[in-house]
Amino acid sequence: MNSIVNHNELPLSRAEFEARLRQVGVERYHDKHRFHDRLHSGGCTMDEVQAWVINRWQYQCSIPMKDAAFLSRCHDPDLRRVWRSRIEDHDGGVEDGGGIRRWLRLAEGVGLDPAYVASGRGVMPATRFIVDAYIRFVRDEPPVAAMASSLTEMFAPAIHTRRIDGLLEHYDFADRETIAYFRHRLTEAPKDVRFTLDWVLNHAVTRPDQEAAIAALTFKTDVLWAQLDALWSAYVDGNVPPGAWKPGEAQLAARP
């Protein structure tokens, strides 16, 4: 009796697998969100720009914690040596401060108190919950899925390039210092992608693992998209939730 082969369970070829991963970005990456169209074309008010900076901070400052959570359960020292550079990119050294400090320079440039932004007091509840969900995902999911979720970086250089051009063209606050975060990501993200994409393609060799990697990348695009949906509802449509920063209110950093 001939066995029946279920082609949906056969592993994808390496080329097919990579194409499926990249298609997630084509269909779902947040460069297509209407808030980014508004921001990059100069359509945002300064209140909206400030709200974006405040809420995006929650994501930016959590990236090193997400990567540290992954490293805490990584048994391969070679993988740890490579992955920890992600933390160094964002936390930086004592003097330079890395991507996090560059984001606070952007905050200052748009007229915010960096200490207030760093305190996280003005972040929307939805933003906090979304970012926390991402940290838990990377902490708890199998390594292939946890690593694949970071592959949104494959699609990031295009949006950073558009953002740099759009901010410089349309906003007075934009200069070399205030947009330094995005310029650095043009070289940092491709470095990370080369390693991570190769690792995922090499280690997700069964169809279930490949589908889990694709689902993880899809989840990450949902994380990014949902943050912008919440931002639009609060600061473009005017439905600012309780506890979130309100345009014009005093910026008070958390007291120790």
TrEMBL record:
<dbReference type="InterPro" id="IPR011845">
    <property type="entry name" value="PqqC"/>
</dbReference>
<keyword id="KW-0884">PQQ biosynthesis</keyword>
<comment type="function">
    <text>Ring cyclization and eight-electron oxidation of 3a-(2-amino-2-carboxyethyl)-4,5-dioxo-4,5,6,7,8,9-hexahydroquinoline-7,9-dicarboxylic-acid to PQQ.</text>
</comment>
<keyword id="KW-0560">Oxidoreductase</keyword>
<feature type="domain" description="Thiaminase-2/PQQC">
    <location>
        <begin position="19"/>
        <end position="229"/>
    </location>
</feature>
<dbReference type="InterPro" id="IPR016084">
    <property type="entry name" value="Haem_Oase-like_multi-hlx"/>
</dbReference>
<comment type="similarity">
    <text>Belongs to the PqqC family.</text>
</comment>
<dbReference type="GO" id="GO:0033732">
    <property type="term" value="F:pyrroloquinoline-quinone synthase activity"/>
</dbReference>
<dbReference type="GO" id="GO:0018189">
    <property type="term" value="P:pyrroloquinoline quinone biosynthetic process"/>
</dbReference>
<comment type="pathway">
    <text>Cofactor biosynthesis; pyrroloquinoline quinone biosynthesis.</text>
</comment>
<protein>
    <recommendedName>
        <fullName>Pyrroloquinoline-quinone synthase</fullName>
        <ecNumber>1.3.3.11</ecNumber>
    </recommendedName>
</protein>
<dbReference type="Pfam" id="PF03070">
    <property type="entry name" value="TENA_THI-4"/>
</dbReference>
<dbReference type="InterPro" id="IPR004305">
    <property type="entry name" value="Thiaminase-2/PQQC"/>
</dbReference>
<dbReference type="InterPro" id="IPR039068">
    <property type="entry name" value="PqqC-like"/>
</dbReference>
